[in-house]
Design brief:
The chain has 311 residues and is of the alpha/beta class. The protein contains ten helices and twelve strands. Helix content is 41%, strand content 22%. The chain has a five-stranded parallel β-sheet with strand order 2-1-3-4-5, with helices on both faces. It has a five-stranded mixed β-sheet with strand order 7-8-6-11-12, with helices on both faces.
Length: 311
């Protein structure tokens, strides 16, 4: 079985450091940024399999950049290594505060560096239940997050989102283009919620075309409206011009019948937990599944709020 190529990001203005890493891990695809600030947005939009950060950057500290990256809940599971100079080592250095996964020393020891990179990647895969496609947290993390919020009796809105007509798109255009749609959907959800600065949020990928996100109850409807607007604005670009012009595709349904399918849309069901009403994540899941059926009965992208509790 062929192993998928790993994509590593290195943020360093030190050309010799890049060459050292490339010699150590030649089979990886490397993307190098000389400055931290210019790299941040691209990292968020296209998270790597491994992020390596030089402690000495021209525009901001390596630990500061890692703090920014790890502050985004959805990317906390991407492994991060910091490259230190001997001068960085001292009583004031506390790497646990920035959630860095490991460190290497400059100049690189090739054998030791290779071992550490392999180990941090393996450790990440052991711990990672995230989607290998979107890098978003997977089912184990999703359940843990929901249950933790319930146990702490925090108010939250839990939204389940999935795509309509995704199967027909996948059947016509193939899995590769289907994966691009899933990655686009993940980015839209994450970036939509990121625009609401300062709110406690969480985004997870259940699998396939199913996603979840958690936001404060009073922000849920606004997030849904913006998410739908963003999704509907982008998704036509994933169709060929001919299909885009006619507004539908011809594909097969689950019974093998050839039918015309509208362009993909997104359905969102939102469950509220107010004053500790829900005590088990299974309750939220069951309510959301019923609400999602209502959302899917509507034409085009739609959201349905759990009206038992209003935001």
């Amino acid at each position: 079985m062929m192993k998928a190529e790993k994509h590593f990001f290195l943020i360093s203005a030190n050309a010799g450091l890049y060459q050292g890493f490339k010699d150590v891990y030649p089979e990886a695809q490397w993307t190098v940024f000389e400055r931290g600030r210019g790299a941040i947005e691209l990292i968020f939009n296209n998270p790597p399999d491994l992020l390596i950060v030089d402690s000495r950057l021209p525009d901001l500290g390596g630990t500061e950049l890692i703090r920014i990256f790890k502050s985004e809940n959805v990317y906390r599971q991407v492994p991060v290594i910091i490259c230190l100079d001997r001068e960085d080592i001292g009583p004031d250095l506390n790497l646990t505060e920035v959630e860095v996964d490991d460190f290497v020393m400059k100049p690189l020891d090739p054998d030791l560096t290779r071992i550490r990179l392999d180990l941090v990647m393996a450790r990440a895969s052991w711990e990672l239940d995230a989607s290998p496609l979107t890098k978003l947290p997977g089912n184990t993390s999703i359940i843990h997050k929901i249950q933790d919020m319930m146990d702490r009796k925090n108010d939250f809105a839990l939204a389940y989102a999935d795509l309509d007509n995704f199967k027909s798109y996948n059947d016509k255009y193939g899995f590769s283009r289907g994966d691009e749609v899933l990655m686009m959907t993940a980015r839209i959800i994450v970036n939509t919620i990121r625009a609401f600065a300062g709110i406690e949020s969480f985004v997870g990928h259940i699998g396939g075309d199913d996603f979840v996100f958690m936001v404060p109850p009073d922000q849920a409807e606004n997030v849904c409206q913006i998410l739908i607007r963003n999704f509907d604005g982008i998704v036509p670009n994933f169709y060929d011009q001919e299909d885009r012009d006619q507004g539908y595709i011809r594909s097969t349904d689950r019974q093998g019948n050839i039918l015309d399918f509208p362009m993909m849309s997104i359905s969102v069901a939102v469950v509220f937990n107010i004053d500790g009403e829900l005590t088990h994540y299974g309750q939220a899941s069951e309510i959301a599944m019923n609400l999602k059926k209502l959302a899917k009965q509507k034409s085009g992208s739609a959201y349905v709020l759990d009206r038992r509790k209003t935001a």
